[in-house]
Specification:
- Two copies of one chain form a homodimer.
- By secondary structure, the first copy, chain A, is of the alpha/beta class.
- Helices cover about 40% and strands about 20% of the residues of chain A.
- A five-stranded mixed beta sheet of chain A has the order 4-3-5-12-6. In chain A, strands 10-7-11 form a three-stranded antiparallel beta sheet.
- In chain A, a hairpin with a 6-residue loop joins strand 1 and strand 2.
- In chain A, helix 1 crosses helix 4.
- The longest helix of chain A is centred in the first third of the chain and has 26 residues.
- At the A-B interface, helix 1, helix 3, helix 4, helix 6 and helix 13 of A face helix 1, helix 3, helix 4, helix 6 and helix 13 of B.
- Chain A binds a DNA duplex through helix 3.
Chain lengths: ~300, ~300
DNA sequence: ATGCTTCATGAGTACGATTCATGGCATGGA
DNA sequence: TCCATGCCATGAATCGTACTCATGAAGCAT
């Protein structure tokens, strides 16, 4: 009755996907985690959707939210619509041209050896004629510019005009230590880290800067007992053994936190995060093999990057 | 095979609606018009979609674009998905609470008397318990602030913090005249308007500024023979009779242009456009009757506003 | 009460979608 | 052949909006 073309822009929004996910998982926070957004984003999105439609869709009373009657109907529509769309997407994937030839990929040591390796198998299987080799190093841009690498995944920003940058994900860091260690050193606030052994990837302790910048001035600890370990995995083991406090990418210590081998310290303080991006030379970014890998990596859900 | 949750963000984009519309109308320009965007926007959107999927969806060879095989399949998926979503939207509309009480709407004379009136009937029918009255005037903000009006549709910008502004549509203007008039005055470039009778809504000729600002300096005409007519409809009739050149909102002269009673002049020059917005007092914007009308107006497709 | 979740909200920001201003490439008259 | 004209592509600039950040309020435990 309202629009001439029977086309209603109302329900054609990213909000809908959020609503759909939210209905599935039943919690704003969980939904946010799965979509790689903040809880606030989900809340805003739902507020907007309800405002747009003019109908309450969520029943927020009490614990564990439920859908209203209208919400349930909308959910069913989403279920159907997204199913067909996702099927279409899947279908399109099959028609992508396969990549051939050789692709030389570079990545940081920590990221490459863990997350990247864990997720490359499906891509390799889908492109049997593609030869990939990996170079894990801290110097990535040099080889990229010298054409020793075709594509690089790095977390330091390279604002070079010759490079194409595609954002990939954000890496968050946590401070943690063994439970016994926390007790022994009575760690309650950041300042308690003073005169307490801390594990660092470098000898100077610059590694801890990404944490220190997030600490308010009054609570600044004076770190002076650094234990340098130039390998993340080794550093984690050291922390588990109670050798010192640890600052590490969250994804790297998920299991240890889960098992209780490590406990997170000062959850209120969020260290600076790294933004991982894919870098390629602009002139080569158009090549099929490069685009395929870029798309594949970007299609990985944020959860898979441990954020 | 790729994403863990079977949720592929690829096809969850506004781009899709564009693609769907494009496939229906078969032309970038027409699609843009229908969606109220520029041709460029549609082009960008399709480029991005094809890049994202990695599959060519459009066949641009030759005249009149066609879909590729993959494009056709995607189109069918869209057809189905959007159908269920739009049905759901329609369903939600029925559950919107009806508005009651009285709503005093203000609008500019030209807009209110034509477009607005032509589109209010469905809204009135859907809200039988709502009494609406219209005030068409050029002074709208005053009454709005004095609470003589509840909601106002205006094209001049009011950056008042107490007012909530919701963008509605853009009004484009055209310069036109009767075919015979063009011949008689040999109108080919804007400068030819010098010493040629021009119709103006005001006596000073300020009406023509929105055209003059769009004309490059070298081609500036010296308008000096103004015929003032303080009513748009009358002005159009005058133009049809060959009394002078006309500057008018495009929507107002659509029929005349269609029938050939008027011809558009200098299509390359695009006069400054008016941006119509809905203004309401923030404190009252939350009321159901106001929100309903706002949503209704915004749901009207851009085509219906003649742009 | 105190803490611990979970969601809401307002202000500020960053990114992506859109526009603007072009340029290329076809087609159809003169 | 030559210019008009219509259609789409493209790069840079701009604008809006969906996000984050930093809170606050409300439910449920202890």
């Amino acid at each position: 009755m309202s629009t001439i073309h029977g086309m209603d822009p109302l329900l054609d929004l990213p909000q809908l996907r959020t609503f759909y996910t939210l209905a599935q998982v039943g919690s704003f926070t969980a939904c946010a985690r799965r979509l790689g957004r903040t809880q606030s984003a989900v809340s805003h999105a739902m507020a907007k959707l309800e405002d747009l439609t003019g109908v309450p869709l969520l029943d927020r009373r009490g614990r564990g939210l439920r859908l209203t009657e209208e919400g349930r109907r909308l959910y069913q529509a989403c279920e159907q619509a997204f199913a067909t769309l996702d099927a279409a997407a899947e279908d399109l994937k099959r028609h992508q041209t396969q990549a051939r030839g050789r692709l030389r990929v570079g990545a940081t040591v920590e990221f490459g050896s863990s997350i990247l390796m864990r997720h490359m198998q499906p891509f390799l299987a889908a492109n049997p004629d593609l030869e990939i080799d990996f170079t894990l190093s801290h110097d990535l841009v040099g080889p990229l510019l010298r054409d020793d690498l075709d594509l690089v995944i790095d977390c330091v920003d390279h604002p070079l005009p010759a490079l194409k940058k595609s954002p990939l994900f954000r890496e968050t860091y946590v401070v943690a230590c063994a439970p016994a260690f926390r007790k022994a050193h009575r760690l309650r606030v950041p300042a308690d880290l003073s005169r307490c052994p801390v594990l660092s990837l470098d000898k100077g302790g610059a590694w801890w800067n990404r944490f220190l910048v997030a600490v308010p001035d009054r609570d600044q600890p004076h770190l002076d007992r650094f234990i340098a370990v130039n390998h993340v995995r080794a550093m984690i083991h050291a922390a588990v053994e109670g050798m010192g406090a640890l600052l590490a990418p969250r994804y790297a210590v998920l299991e240890e936190l889960e098992r209780g081998d490590l406990v997170a310290l000062f959850p209120a303080i969020r260290p600076a995060e790294d933004r991982f991006s894919i870098y390629q030379k602009k002139v080569k970014a158009g090549q099929e093999k490069q685009r395929l890998l870029t798309r594949y990596l970007q299609s990985l859900s944020p959860e898979e990057f441990g954020s």
